[in-house]
Write a structure and sequence with these properties.
single chain; 185 residues; alpha+beta; Beta Polymerase, domain 2; 2 domains; five-stranded mixed beta sheet; globular
Length: 185
């Protein structure tokens, strides 16, 4: 009998379980973060930033493999050394995990300022809405629309000063101010 195909939510739960079991600091970003703050978005990947060291790669890879993902310690070490993401394939579905090592200040900031969000029966560390908006502010047209949606839906709950300071450090303060103006219309 073929194995049951995992849903997107089940893949997210399996990835969270892998990261918790490996005792890795992490934060979910991307489409999952956008959805968590009220803007529905379809996606085929689970984006996550993970704080791991080179010597943690074997333990991290084993934790994912234990939950039916396909990844090697070498891939994780290479991703860390190159400052690139590592694609982890789910063997039980067409979904994948795009794991980015937390080697840059922006990534470390996302982990440090994550918020616990209840999503489809699980509590997950998600990049806070301020970080998510700033990251989206200089992306594709879809990213900008997602940022605008979060600004509108999270109005009154955002830490605007922190968001603007972070936007200034990322060099997108002008774009962020324009998004704020559009959200106020």
């Amino acid at each position: 009998m073929p194995a049951k195909r995992r849903s997107f939510a089940a893949v997210v739960r399996a990835a969270e379980g892998s990261l918790r079991a490996a005792r890795m600091g992490h934060v979910f970003v991307g489409g999952l973060a956008v959805a968590a703050f009220g803007v529905p978005r379809t996606t085929t990947d689970v984006d996550v930033i993970v704080g791991y060291r080179e010597q943690d790669a074997p333990r991290l890879a084993e934790s994912f493999r234990h939950r039916s993902f396909q990844v090697s310690a070498e891939d994780l070490r290479d991703a860390r050394a190159e400052g690139a993401h590592c694609t982890i394939h789910d063997t039980l579905s067409a979904f994948r995990v795009d794991l980015a090592p937390a080697t840059r200040p922006r990534a470390k900031d996302a982990i440090r300022h994550s918020v616990r969000v209840r999503w489809r029966g699980s509590t997950l560390p998600i990049a806070d809405p301020e970080h998510t908006i700033v990251k989206l502010a200089y992306g594709s047209d879809q990213d900008i629309e997602d940022a605008l949606g979060i600004l509108v839906r999270q109005r009154g709950r955002l830490k605007v000063r922190r968001m603007r300071e972070f936007g200034g450090r990322q060099g997108v303060l002008k774009a962020l101010r324009e998004l704020e103006r559009r959200a106020a219309e």
